Amino acid sequence: MKKTLAVLIVLGLAGAGLAAVPAPGQPLKGQISISGAWALYPMVQKWVEEFTKVNPGVRIDLQAGGAGKGIADTLAGMVDIGMVSRDVHQVELDKGALAIAVTKDAVVGTVNASNPLLKDIRARGAKKDSLIGLWITGAVKTWGQVVGTSDRTEVQVFTRSDACGAAETWAAYFGKRQEDLQGIGVYGDPGLADAVRRDPSSIGFNNVNFAYDAKTKKPIEGLAILPLDQNGNGQVDPQENVYGTRDDLCAAIADGRYPSPPARDLYFVTKGVPSSAVVKAFLRWILTKGQAFVSETGYISLSPDKLKKGLTLLGER
């Protein structure tokens, strides 16, 4: 579903230290257009909200539609910034893509909260080989094969129909690409979550902030998170049991208990270094003051070195 966030701005970002930024005391005015990854959409909504509180003279148009759309729109000159939730490909870099890491999150497996085997799923988790059998080879057909029981309920496998970072990252966990994933294709993060919620025998995957409720910080109603049996011992060990709340999972992503992939950095992509003072000011704000809103929005802060690298790419010293 296409979402648009448009906000008007008046008071400027004074003295940002960027080339072509208005002199101190002058308001920052202009327009910024952003499209792309669902994974980044909630975070960028928050950044736009906070940035526009202190800069009401800029119009920001924000649309979600998948990482593929974001980078394609950017390289085509249709938007100023693309939200990208995967590594930027060399062919995209060759076309002028400039990737700036802005935060981090992860993709998680999801199942229906009414799955009859949910107790076993939570206790035993899913081995990587079982997930490969579901999404890649098709060799795994039943929930009994997933959790090691005699249950013969067939698994309904869902994937994404749109070019997106979530599917690319989930596939990367198996050493594959999005086009290798089998299953019924569903458009968008919200659509995939809804598909799993409607089918008790289903399995899917979502970005963290579409699997957990922003208010309760628990899995959204009707969804349960699929634990990964990372060491393949047939049970979810204490160090693997990181899915109770969004905060629990974010802590595990930050300290490495949740693997990468499916954890990954999230990027803003521009076509070369932006020439627009407004765009550069917004990017600089995100890499500095905007980082204060990362944790509360359900994302993971990047290291100071990565943030500094982003500023350097913008021409900051």
Describe this structure in words.
- The chain contains 12 helices and 10 strands.
- The protein is an alpha/beta fold and 317 residues long.
Shape: elongated
The radius of gyration is: 20 Å
The fraction of residues assigned to DSSP E strands is 15-25%
Please describe the biggest sheet, giving its number of strands, its sense, and whether it closes into a barrel: 10 strands, mixed
User: Low-confidence stretches at least 5 residues in length (pLDDT < 50)?
Assistant: 1-20
Q: How helical, in percent, are the residues?
A: 25-40%
Q: What is the CATH architecture descriptor of the largest domain?
A: 3-Layer(aba) Sandwich
CATH topology of the largest domain: D-Maltodextrin-Binding Protein, domain 2
Overall strand count: 10
N-end to C-end Cα span: 40 Å
Please work out how many helical segments DSSP would assign. 12
